[in-house]
Amino acid sequence: MPLTDKAGHLWAHRSTVKAGDVLITDGGFTCMGNHERKVVKSFEGPLLHCDAEYAKDPFARLYIDCSDGTHGLDGQVGEDGELIGLYAASVPTSNESIG
After folding, report:
1. Greatest pairwise CA separation for the chain in angstroms
2. How many independent structural domains does the chain possess?
3. HEC states along the chain?
């Protein structure tokens, strides 16, 4: 999987995203609109439905709000650590510039 979208814009990356960061969605989500700005949040308390080793990873706690409630970032990680469908807020946000 490439680290960029079709237009060459970099996806956000697992290694650099943290709570408080702002991500921008692409148009591929059913629970979020195109080019929405989302603040990364961190779950408090115990993580359910995952093994104890995974629960130790701080990235496992990260999520953004969506129309379904929350959207865990761990479900967007590509094979090279890129977050498919999510850009760092530093990329252009017009429909013409993100594809």
Report:
1. 43
2. 1
3. CCCECCCCCECCECCCCCCCCEEEECCCCCCCCCCCEEECEECCCCCCCCCHHHHCCHHHHEEEEECCEEEEHHHHECCCCEECCEEECCCCCCCCCCC
Q: What is the mean pLDDT of the chain?
A: 83
Distance of CA 42 to the CA centre of its chain: 12
Q: What is the pLDDT of residues 89-98, one digit of tens each?
A: 875 444 444 4
Q: Evaluate whether residue 15 is within a structural domain.
A: no
- pTM here is 0.79
